[in-house]
C-alpha cells in the first residue's frame, strides 16, 4: 500500500479511500495503492466487497499532469482498470466532485456506481488531442449504447450526475457523505444478493454507420483528428471481442500521442493555466471589486455589463441620453434572457440582475461609488480623453479607470487624468459576455495592484486574461493587422479571397480573414486605413479595391454585401462577383499579372507573417512570453486549438524552416518580410519559443 490510499475494513466491506490532494489525480502512487488495496482485500477472509471513494474535492479528476511527457510507470491505468473489474469481490465506486478521464475509467471498471447529486463525469481526453486510453471507448458504449457514448467521448463534455443517471453511467444518485452513502449502498447490494456486473462481460452494443459517423465527427472537429479516431476505437469495441477492442483503443491512443495535434493541445492546456500566473504579481493584492461602472451601452458596453452582472457585481451603466439608456437596458436584458433560456440563471436571478443589480443612468455622478469603470465608447482619442476627464472628476480615489480601446495609446489616455497610476486598458472582445479573451493592457504608470485588479476582474468574469504592453493594436490586433496584410498581398498577386478563406478554414480557423472582415464590418478596416494613411511607409502595398466597395456603402454582413453576399434568414454568404471585378481592375492599374497560389502556400505565407510579427511583439516586450501570444490568438482570433497557437505551430514546423520561408518571401518584398531579429537569434542559438516560455517560468 502507498500513503495515497487509506485502507479500512467495515465488517465484510473494504473501503479504499484515495487521498491525493487537491483532486486525487491518478499518479503512479495512487495507481499502485489501488492495485495493492485490491490484492489485500481479496486476500483477507470474509471480505465480500470493495468500495472506492475519494477524499476532499473529487473522486478522481483524471491523470496526474505532472507525469505528462515522462515515461509511463507501472501499474499502467488500463491494467489497473482490468484488475479492478476482474476482482471476484463486488466493487463499487462512490463518486463526488469530478470523475474525469481516467477517473471515470476507474469508476467504469467497478461493478456499480453511486454519485452525489453535484457530481460530474466525463471523458475529456479529446481536448488533449487524445482518446480515452484505459477502456473508456470500450466500456462506456457497452454500458449506455454507441450514440450517447460517442457524444460523450467526442465532445469531452462534463455530464452532471442526474443526467449520468438517466444515461445509465451511474446506478444511483444520493446526497450525503460519499463514504457513508457508498457504504449503505454496498450493504444494500450485498443484502439483496446483487452479483458482480463487469462491463467487459456485457454484450456489445448495436453497430451504427461507422464511416458516416467518422466523417461527421471529423467535419465537426474542423480538422481535429482525435474525436474522429475515437469513433474508430468505439467501432473496434463493437466489432471485436473485448480484449481485442482494448488493444485497438491502446494502439489508437499511442498513435495520437505521437501527433503534432497532441503536442499543440497539451501546450494549450498548460498555457491556459499559466497565462494569468504572472511573476510580477506575486504577493500583490488586487483592489476591491464589488461595483463596476460601464460607459457606453452599445454592443460592447452591454456585453461587458452582462458579464459583470453574471459574475456577481452590481453595475452602473452610463449613456448620453435617456433613449440610449433605455436601449442599453434592453440590450443587457436580451443578453441575460439568453442565460435564462440556457438555464444558467433562474427567473428570480434574472429579475435581480435586470432590476436591483443594474443601474442605467445618464449622470456621471452615479459612478461615485464604483470600484472599477470600463469605458466602451467610440474608438476616437479625443472622445476617450473627454470621458476620462469626467471620470477623473467623479470617481472615488482608488477607483480603477479602464479603457476598452482596441488600438489607441493607453499612456495618452492615462495622461488625460490626474491619476495615471489608476488607468489600465481592458480590451474585451465582442460579444464581451461570450468571448473568452481579455487583454490587460499595462501602461507605463499603471500601479501593480491595478494590474492585479485587471486580472482579478478577468478571473471573476471567467476570461482568459493576457498581459499586454502599449502599442498600436496591443498583442492581438497588431499581429492580426500583419497577417491580414499578407492575405491582402496574396489577393493582389492572384489568390482569390475565397480560396484564401477556404484554405485557412481547412487549416482549422473558425473563419477565413475575409469572412471575418465581413462579420466585423468593412468600415472598421476602412477607417483604420484612412487613419494610418498619413504615416504609411512608401513601400507598403495597400489594396484600394475594398475601399471602393465601402465608398458604395457596402460594409459586409450588416449591409448584406461585402466580400460575400448575404441573404436574410440564410447562414453564411456567397462570393460577391463585384469583388472579383474590383480586384481585376486594380491588378490592371498596378500592372500585376496574377498567378496561382496553392493551399499550402497560402497557409505558409499567412502563418509566417503571423509568427514574424509575433516575434517582434515579443522582442519589444509587448508580450512577455510566447504563450501569451498563443493564448491571445486561440481565445480571441479563432486560431485552431490543436496547433496550440502560432508560436507552438512555429516550433512544430521547426524555426529554421519558418525563417527560411520568410527569407524566401523577402527576396520579392524585403520591406514587409523583414525577418524578426528574435527569430533569427533563436535559430542561430538553436532555441525554440517554448524555451523562452520555460525561461520566463523560472
UniProtKB/TrEMBL annotation:
Q: Which UniProt keywords apply?
A: Fatty acid metabolism, Isomerase, Lipid degradation, Lipid metabolism, Lyase, Multifunctional enzyme, NAD, Oxidoreductase, Peroxisome
Task: Cite the record's note on assembly.
Answer: Monomer.
Which compartment or compartments is the protein found in? Peroxisome
Swiss-Prot/TrEMBL catalytic activity: a (3S)-3-hydroxyacyl-CoA + NAD(+) = a 3-oxoacyl-CoA + NADH + H(+)
- Principal place of residence: other
Xref: CDD domains? crotonase-like (cd06558)
3-hydroxyacyl-CoA dehydrogenase C-terminal domain: which residues? 473-566, 602-687
Xref: SUPFAM superfamilies:
6-phosphogluconate dehydrogenase C-terminal domain-like (SSF48179), ClpP/crotonase (SSF52096), NAD(P)-binding Rossmann-fold domains (SSF51735)
User: What taxonomic lineage is listed for the species of origin?
Assistant: Bacteria, Pseudomonadati, Pseudomonadota, Alphaproteobacteria, Rhodobacterales
Q: Which family does it belong to?
A: Belongs to the enoyl-CoA hydratase/isomerase family.
Protein name from the UniProt record? Fatty acid oxidation complex subunit alpha
Q: Which residues form the 3-hydroxyacyl-CoA dehydrogenase NAD binding domain?
A: 292-468
Cite the Pfam families for this sequence: 3HCDH, 3HCDH_N, ECH_1
InterPro entries documented for this protein: 3-OHacyl-CoA_DH_NAD-bd, 3HC_DH_C, 6-PGluconate_DH-like_C_sf, ClpP/crotonase-like_dom_sf, Enoyl-CoA_hyd/isom_CS, Enoyl-CoA_hydra/iso, NAD(P)-bd_dom_sf
**Pathway entry:** Lipid metabolism; fatty acid beta-oxidation
